[in-house]
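Subject: design request, 497 residues
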């Protein structure tokens, strides 16, 4: 979608559609009132007749409204003005997109960002709308033999602002929203691709293609012999049972001086998780193709950062492997040595995410990052703890935790902190190695965090468990593109804007 910003009165805009809101009960918003005056009370009459009460989710498309230059006027119900918050706003934008996509309008001007949204300014609203519209346009058609013939006519969405002075900020907001939305769509596409297409080597190819699209991104891929050389026994133990060799993908974005320390993102990229010898039960096992969504969010965030040309350096690491049972596969009780030198007794081969991550986190040290954030669909326990709303957030630095939490709040891509500590860490004790790879039934998300903490003591580190948030099950099964908004916001904040 093309986005733009424009000042001027709603009635004068020559677009396929002009979009304004109506509050409950039958109360025109400021911009709707403005249109109504130009239309000599036409909108007020319609509202009085009971065709638009202003309930959330309501919409009314009017054609050729007298006194209005646009071909259509779209009224969007907003609910009660006193209760109108960011959730109501998002619903309004979604309703608008649905109505516009179903119409013949090729372009539209939207005044919803000027509405009074609790605690948010018009720039935030423009950004959120651009992000929403960009993601609403996405559909997964790569593996369908026929593409949807009913593509919306809408090509361009313009946001109305009140003052010329606000144009620049509004344009920046729209650009950010678009870049974040496109980054989410990239993450969703990689997540949605099946395990037989999206293999570790496929992810490596996608990294190369990202590097080709953006001259600011350089890519290096380590194969299994290279990882062997580095002593990555934990990572390599996961791919042992698979015909698909593991890859460690290194993507470096350079937006600042080469000697500026980067921010590191490390993604879990298990392209399919059968559980290995500790094999998973069959129900919904197909969803374990989404076990590389942490990696996908690293791709999406790097793309957004490159599009926005942020003046910082970022290194994205993706630990990609397939977890399969096989005659050569790692067995429960096997002991491996990680790149850090610490030994691990693998009591459960289904706790593989932490095994690929720990070596990638050790590898991250060589970049001397300002912070390192790993992103992983790590534990089913996180879904039990936090459901599908919030990411699990853990780490060893209060400042970093706060920065990530705030970035999540700013983008409605929220994370909730869980504790780490010696009481939990003890659960990883092994009689035969430095640690076990599981901590038992209780506090599964936290003991996974404790495991990673043992490999990040030298770094300013945080961990996002996105097991509940990275994809949706059921009728709307599909990757969500989260936490690309949180991560991009975190980096925008570091870049000072
Ligand atoms: N990828 C899974 C976690 C997962 C499961 C995410 C279901 C989303 C939905 C991970 O590799 C895994 O299998 N974790 C185990 C850990 C356990 C063996 C300690 C789990 O959560 O059951
Ligand atoms: Mn697993
Ligand atoms: Zn997994």
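Subject: RE: design request

Done. Sequence follows.
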């Amino acid at each position: 979608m093309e986005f733009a910003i424009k000042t001027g009165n709603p009635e004068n805009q020559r677009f396929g559609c002009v979009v304004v809101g109506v509050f409950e009960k039958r109360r025109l918003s400021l911009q709707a009132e403005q249109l109504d005056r130009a239309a000599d009370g036409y909108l007020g009459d319609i509202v009085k007749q009971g065709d638009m009460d202003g309930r959330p989710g309501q919409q009314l498309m009017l054609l050729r409204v007298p006194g209005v230059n646009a071909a259509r006027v779209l009224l969007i119900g907003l609910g009660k003005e006193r209760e109108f918050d960011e959730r109501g706003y998002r619903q309004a934008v979604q309703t608008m997109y649905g109505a516009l996509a179903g119409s013949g309008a090729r372009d539209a001007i939207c005044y919803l960002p000027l509405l009074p949204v609790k605690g948010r300014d018009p720039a935030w609203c423009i950004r959120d709308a651009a992000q929403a519209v960009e993601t609403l346009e996405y559909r997964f058609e790569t593996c369908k033999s026929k593409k949807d013939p009913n593509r919306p006519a809408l090509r361009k969405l313009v946001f109305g602002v009140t003052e010329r002075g606000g144009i620049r900020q509004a344009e920046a907001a729209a650009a950010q929203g678009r870049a974040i939305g496109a980054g989410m769509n990239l993450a969703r596409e990689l997540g949605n691709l099946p395990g037989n297409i999206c293999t570790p080597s496929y992810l490596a190819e996608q990294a190369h293609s990202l590097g080709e699209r953006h001259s600011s991104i350089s890519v290096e891929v380590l194969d299994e012999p290279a990882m062997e050389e580095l002593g990555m026994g934990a990572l390599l133990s996961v791919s042992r049972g698979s015909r698909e060799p593991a890859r460690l993908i290194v993507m470096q974005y350079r937006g600042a001086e080469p000697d500026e320390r980067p921010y590191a993102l490390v993604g879990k990229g298990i392209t399919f998780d059968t559980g290995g010898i500790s094999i998973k039960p069959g129900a919904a096992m197909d969803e374990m193709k989404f076990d590389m969504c942490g990696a996908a969010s690293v791709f999406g965030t790097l793309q957004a950062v490159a599009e926005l040309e942020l003046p910082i350096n970022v290194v994205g690491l993706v630990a990609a492997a397939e977890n399969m049972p096989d005659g050569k596969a790692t067995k429960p009780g096997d002991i491996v040595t990680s790149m850090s030198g610490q030994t691990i007794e693998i009591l459960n081969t289904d706790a593989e995410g932490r095994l690929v991550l720990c070596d990638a986190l050790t590898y991250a040290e060589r970049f001397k990052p300002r912070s390192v954030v790993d992103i992983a669909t790590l534990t089913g326990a996180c879904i039990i703890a936090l459901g599908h709303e919030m990411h699990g957030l853990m780490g060893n630095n209060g400042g970093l935790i706060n920065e990530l939490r705030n970035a999540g709040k700013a983008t409605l891509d929220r994370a909730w902190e869980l504790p780490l500590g010696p009481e939990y860490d003890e659960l990883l004790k092994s009689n035969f190695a430095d640690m076990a790879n599981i901590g038992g039934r209780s506090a599964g998300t936290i003991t996974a965090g404790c495991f990673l903490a043992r490999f990040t003591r030298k770094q300013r580190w945080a961990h996002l468990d996105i097991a509940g948030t990275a994809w949706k099950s059921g009728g709307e099964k599909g990757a969500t593109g989260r936490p690309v908004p949180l991560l991009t916001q975190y980096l925008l904040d570091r870049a000072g804007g």
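The first strand starts at residue 2 and ends at 6.
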